[in-house]
């Protein structure tokens, strides 16, 4: 179709608005080093390289449920590199970063605000919160257990290991309270307790204006582009009929495979228009976040950070990353077929 004002109707404004508000609030948390402070406190209880990895992977897993997988990795992967470098034990960095990446993709699957595709599916299909959790819990629980088992490959003892952590600035209580309240307002908009335009307005007005530059506008524009693209496809009867037939009773497998090729967020925006089976699509695109490097754009974030740290070992990283992710894809296929 030629460009027209009808494009406006293709866009899910609530998803964009809620995602924008959450990004802004999380930028506020990151500016006050909230997540780094939390990690520093936890790391005081670590005495071995394995315990350090467990804490850093664990905090990535659980934080991704609330602040998205992208933000969790942007925050904790650099921290991992710094902490192990300070501890004079750099060998666990590669495997820890890979496990953090998987942990973020798996952990974020549990909640509607854990990643962009979940936020869209929750809004688009109006899934009940309880149903959402119950649908994803078997995958997140089993994935968490596998992450824990793989952490056992991190060396427990190291002669050169000496724990040192960076000191972080103290957190202003006033700011912490302000952004916590704004985070709750953003969540209220996601769950329709507050009108989303009102929530966005409150968050923008009450946040520090310099945080606006930290919002991932490229992701928001990607959403807009795919909304328009899919809206146009919807007018092509032959295409819509073909995609509808392809997805029928195969939503999980098609969405998992599509995620490997075009990433799970675009796959979600594309396939949601052609199926009413929300739970199968939800499971498929989240399981599909594991696999290839581009299956989840959060995985690309980790890879870029590691490549900047140690460019010579990127091939090794990709090899281990692929092996680990294949294990998780096989696990999720087993859960889907036999749970």
Describe this structure in words.
It is a multi-pass membrane protein. The chain crosses the membrane at residues 12-33, 53-86, 132-155, 176-205, 217-236, 252-272, 284-303, 315-338. InterPro entries: Cit_transptr-like_dom (IPR004680), Diverse_Ion_Transporter (IPR051475). Keywords: Membrane, Transmembrane, Transmembrane helix, Transport. It is found in: Membrane. The chain is mostly helical and 339 residues long. The protein has one domain. The protein contains 17 helices and no strands. It has helices spanning 7-10, 13-31, 34-43, 49-67, 69-86, 93-107, 116-125, 129-150, 173-190, 196-206, 217-233, 237-247, 251-262, 264-271, 278-287, 297-309, 314-338. The model has no long low-confidence stretch (mean pLDDT 91).
Features:
339 residues, mainly alpha, 17 helices, globular, Diverse_Ion_Transporter, Cit_transptr-like_dom, membrane, transport, transmembrane helix
- The percent range for helix content is over 70%
Structural class: mainly alpha
* Overall body shape: globular
Quote the average pLDDT.
91
Which oligomeric state applies? single chain
Topology, please?
Elements (H helix, E strand, L loop, with lengths): L6 H4 L2 H19 L2 H10 L5 H19 L1 H18 L6 H15 L8 H10 L3 H22 L22 H18 L5 H11 L10 H17 L3 H11 L3 H12 L1 H8 L6 H10 L9 H13 L4 H25 L1
Helix pairs in contact: 2-7, 2-9, 2-10, 4-5, 4-6, 5-6, 5-16, 6-8, 6-16, 6-17, 7-14, 7-15, 8-15, 8-17, 9-10, 11-14, 13-14, 13-15, 14-15
């Amino acid at each position: 179709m030629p460009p027209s004002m009808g494009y406006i109707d293709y866009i899910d404004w609530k998803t964009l608005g809620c995602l924008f508000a959450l990004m802004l609030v999380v930028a506020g948390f990151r500016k006050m080093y909230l997540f780094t402070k939390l990690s520093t406190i936890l790391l005081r209880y670590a005495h071995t390289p394995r315990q350090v990895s467990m804490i850093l992977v664990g905090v990535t897993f659980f934080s991704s449920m609330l602040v998205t997988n992208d933000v969790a990795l942007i925050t904790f992967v650099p921290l991992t590199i710094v902490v192990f470098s300070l501890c004079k034990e750099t060998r666990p960095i590669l495997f820890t970063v890979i496990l953090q990446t998987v942990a973020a993709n798996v952990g974020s699957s549990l909640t509607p605000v854990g990643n962009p595709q979940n936020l869209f599916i929750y809004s688009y299909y109006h899934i009940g919160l309880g149903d959402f959790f119950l649908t994803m819990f078997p995958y997140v629980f089993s994935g968490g257990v596998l992450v824990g088992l793989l952490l056992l490959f991190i060396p427990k003892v190291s002669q050169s290991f000496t724990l040192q952590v960076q000191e972080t600035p103290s957190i202003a209580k006033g700011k912490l309270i302000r952004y916590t309240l704004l985070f709750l307002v953003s969540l209220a908009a996601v769950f329709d307790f507050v009108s989303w335009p009102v929530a966005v307005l409150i968050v923008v007005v009450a946040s520090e204006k310099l945080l606006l530059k930290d919002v991932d506008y490229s992701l928001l524009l990607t959403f807009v582009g795919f909304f328009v693209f899919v809206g146009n496809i919807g007018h092509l009867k032959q295409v819509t009929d073909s995609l509808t037939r392809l997805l029928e009773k195969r939503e999980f497998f098609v969405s998992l495979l599509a995620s490997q090729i075009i990433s799970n967020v675009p796959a979600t925006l594309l396939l949601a228009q052609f199926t009413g089976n929300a739970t199968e699509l939800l499971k498929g695109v989240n399981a599909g976040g594991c696999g290839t490097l581009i299956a989840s754009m959060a995985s690309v974030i980790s890879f870029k950070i590691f490549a900047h740290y140690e460019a010579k070992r990127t091939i090794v990283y990709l090899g281990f990353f692929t092996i680990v992710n294949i294990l998780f894809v096989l696990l999720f296929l087993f859960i889907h077929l036999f749970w």
